Amino acid sequence: MDYLIAGLGNHGKRYQNTRHNAGFAALDHCANQWRGQFTASSNANVLVADAMISGRKSKLIKPQTFMNKSGLAVRKVADYFDVPPNNILIVHDDIALPLGELRISKGSSAGGHNGVQSVIDAFGTQKFTRLRIGIDDRNDRSEVDTRSYVLGQFTTDQKTVLENNLSAVREGVEKWADAGPEQAMNMLNE
What we know:
The protein has helices spanning 22-33, 70-81, 114-123, 146-150, 156-179, 181-188, and strands at 3-7, 39-40, 46-53, 56-63, 88-98, 102-106, 129-136. The chain is α/β, with parallel strands linked by helices. The chain has a single domain, classed as Rossmann fold (3-Layer(aba) Sandwich). Strands 2-3-4-1-5-7-6 form a seven-stranded mixed β-sheet, sandwiched between helices.
């Protein structure tokens, strides 16, 4: 296997369609486009789908742990398939970015994201790539605390904005797999 792409989110019906699950939504879209089917893994606490991305064998995973324990599941799958951190892409929500904005970075800090910090802690390195999906469209950031906001449901309008950007997420993942993180950054980080 060449690449491991992990979408971060919280499992369970209670968290479906929450802003914090933008990583899950992105991987659902990608799996659908690449004809991958998520199934429960017998080796790790994840849903996993096989995909060919730019001609490379890849695994898409959605950890079925809570966000702040995501790293344990990602590490277990990476170890099982012998995928080094350089070949791992973490797709997740980012409240520091406006709704629908996308950014790719490599080797960066968690930026306050507990799921990303869990991945950093599990691997002991930041040498993986992150694709961040902006979820913030609050006019007044003081009106709702961050935790309530990220765990809140997308409004219909917000969900439409997210869905309209999922093709760009897929294209970013494909560019990352095909040409590397720098080329993906050039494409998405306008």
